[in-house]
Write a structure and sequence with these properties.
The chain has 558 residues and is of the alpha/beta class. The protein folds into two domains: 19-33 and 415-556, Glycosyl hydrolase domain, family 39 (Immunoglobulin-like, Sandwich), CATH 2.60.40; 43-410, TIM Barrel, CATH 3.20.20.80. The protein has helices spanning 2-19, 55-67, 110-121, 168-186, 188-192, 211-228, 245-260, 295-310, 347-367, 401-410, 426-432, 496-502, 511-520; strands spanning 21-29, 43-46, 73-76, 97-99, 105-107, 125-130, 195-198, 233-239, 275-281, 285-287, 290-292, 319-326, 370-374, 376-377, 394-395, 398-399, 415-417, 419-421, 439-447, 450-458, 467-475, 481-489, 524-525, 530-533, 539-545, 550-556. The protein has a nine-stranded parallel β-sheet. Helix 12 runs antiparallel to helix 13 (511-520). The longest helix has 21 residues, at 347-367. It is globular and about 80 Å long. It holds the Pfam family Glyco_hydro_39. This is Xylan 1,4-beta-xylosidase.
């Protein structure tokens, strides 16, 4: 009976959604200017570095590099971990450092070069993460290799690679040799364009030392990087959410140390720092069997991190990278074993991404800080079941709907335009998340002869709802007749997941089905291009946008 009631309720809500519409009016000022629309979205990362050069990894990296007008930045873990390079969930290795029988260092850059070569060949920039601890240097090397899989205890991953070095001098020499090798291989100018960073989430199990030991290894690391290349950019601390107790505490300890602390290497005050980093995650859960997102949790993490950094005048203008910025924390925790992650395959992930990235600009502006990038911690998982529900951008080489929102971002201009109207501003969304009416709003930009407008219809609750009828006025258009193109991500457009379900969710799609899925995974236009005329400098548009849908409107003129 309970199951029957759920079916009846679902049918009722679906019918209601088809009939009703939510009217919203948005206004874009094409003559206004709110500063540079930095490509903060052109940053991606993942746990498993050895996926980089595998077949689907290379394919996805090529697609990411093509969607952006600027170089895409890529951050991966485990670049100094000991092992044979076998790829596995939450694991990677390069064997960059071992020791001979006499304890003499042996350096082997074969796998790290293969990873970085894959990025550089595509015009991408590595965020060179210095970590984790090689087996021969770890103060507690046993056990070292883990074999975690979805459903296992997450704490099982924190093995010998997470510990401090038994010899800080050998660690520093490893860092020095790696940076020098990169300069020799890729050139000084290229390596100067990268960011170098130490470790990942040292306030939790990723670092098994004390906070003081982390500050010590940072000083040794930064000193080694600068000795190898004085113009290299180094920073950290890549803590978890600053709105939480551990992340916020270590972020402040780090900022205090690099400004007024005693350097463990030089004995002087302060440490080199060129970029500041922290993480920010949302918190989905199941409510009455349906996924409910919590964007507010992620935005509060971001806002708190910005607020803390803004409190240090000497650091306030440094570039900030949100090193992982996602709807929740575990990319490798699949939907089949973690049902709260059932947002990942469809349009809820894509609409969440559009709405959340727009608010990162607002939060940075409100705190007066320099946001350079926000890393989407999602890539691909090689040779896994189709649409298993990992937090990834593609499955078996087929792009998922969320990737098409990044293609939309890649079409945006560099000048940010004012947008008024909408149902939520960033403050309300930060404080309340989206629990009442949907978040229907837009992000707009301009080039010399075009305006691009990203419009989304998002709600935290993964249930049917009415479509939005969006009246969009573009003011101060400097031409009469304009060409209008619309690109769409929804259930019927740019959606390989819905196409796969209509095929019967095949576990092993045929060659023809794979081709159809690949086509469905590309960004699609919604209808033919239009020629519309501005009246008294205002171009009036209308978009009927289903719940969890995203549209990109490109208005151009001669």
């Amino acid at each position: 009976m309970h199951f029957l009631r759920k079916i009846i309720a679902f049918v009722f809500l679906t019918t209601l959604a088809a009939k009703a519409q939510i009217p919203v009016r948005l206004t874009v000022d094409a003559g206004g200017y709110q500063g540079e629309l930095k490509p903060i979205w052109a940053w991606f990362g993942y746990d498993e570095p050895n996926y980089t050069y595998m077949k689907d990894g290379r394919k996805l990296l090529s697609e990411l590099s093509r969607l952006s007008k600027v170089p895409v930045n890529v951050r991966v873990h485990s670049l100094l971990v000991t092992g044979d390079g076998t790829a596995a969930l939450k694991w990677g290795s390069t064997n960059a450092y071992t020791e001979d029988a006499a304890g003499k260092p042996v350096y082997d850059w074969t796998i790290t070069d293969r990873i970085f070569d894959t990025f550089i060949e595509r015009g991408m920039k590595p965020i060179a993460q210095i970590g984790f601890m090689p087996e021969a240097l770890s103060v507690k090397p046993v056990p070292y290799r883990h074999h975690w899989k979805p459903g296992d205890n997450y704490n099982d991953i924190y093995t010998g690679w997470a510990y401090p070095p038994k010899d800080y001098g050998k660690w520093a020499e490893l860092v020095y040799q790696w940076v020098r090798h990169c300069v020799d291989r890729y050139g000084k100018k290229e390596v100067e364009s990268w960011y170098w960073e130490l470790w990942n989430e040292p306030d939790i199990g990723y670092w098994k030392g004390t906070p003081e030991e982390f500050l010590k290894i940072y000083d040794y690391t930064a000193d080694a990087v600068k000795r190898a290349l004085p113009t290299a950019r180094i920073g950290g601390p890549e803590v978890t959410g600053p709105n939480g107790r551990s992340g916020g505490k270590l972020l402040r300890q780090f900022l205090d140390h690099v400004t007024t602390g005693t350097n463990y290497v030089t004995g002087k005050t302060g440490s080199p720092v060129d970029v500041l980093t922290f993480h920010a995650k949302g918190a989905p859960k199941l409510v009455n069997g349906n996924v409910q997102m919590n964007m507010g949790t992620q935005l509060r993490d971001i806002d708190r991190g910005f607020e803390i950094i803004a409190g240090y005048p000497s650091l306030k203008n440094l570039p900030i990278i949100i090193g992982e910025s996602d709807p929740e924390g575990c990319a490798a925790c699949s939907e089949d074993l973690h049902p709260q992650n059932a947002y990942r395959n469809g349009t809820m992930y894509s609409s969440y991404t559009a709405a959340s990235f727009a608010r990162k600009y607002d939060l940075a502006a409100s705190r007066g800080v320099n946001l350079a990038g926000a890393v989407t911690w999602a890539f691909e998982f090689e040779d896994q079941a189709w649409f298993r529900g990992f937090r990834d951008l593609a499955t078996n080489g087929v792009d998922k709907p969320v990737l098409n929102v990044f293609r939309m971002f890649g079409m945006m201009g560099r000048r940010k335009l004012p947008v008024s109207g909408g149902t939520y501003d960033y403050r309300r969304l930060r404080d309340e998340s989206v629990r009442a009416e949907p978040d229907i709003n837009a992000l707009a930009s301009r080039e010399d002869k075009s305006v691009t407008i990203l419009v989304w219809h998002y709600h935290d609750d993964h249930i049917p709802g009415p479509a939005a009828s969006v009246a969009l006025d573009v003011q101060h258009v400097p031409a009469g007749t304009c060409k209008v193109e619309e690109f769409r991500v929804d259930a019927a457009h740019s959606n390989s997941y819905e196409t796969w379900k209509k095929m019967g969710s095949p576990k092993v799609p045929t060659e023809a089905q794979v081709a159809a899925l690949e086509k469905a995974g590309q960004l699609e236009k919604n209808g033919p291009d239009q020629r519309l005329r501005a009246v008294d400098g205002t171009l009036s548009l209308r978009v009927d946008l289903p719940r969890q849908g995203v549209s990109l409107l490109r208005v151009s003129w001669r």
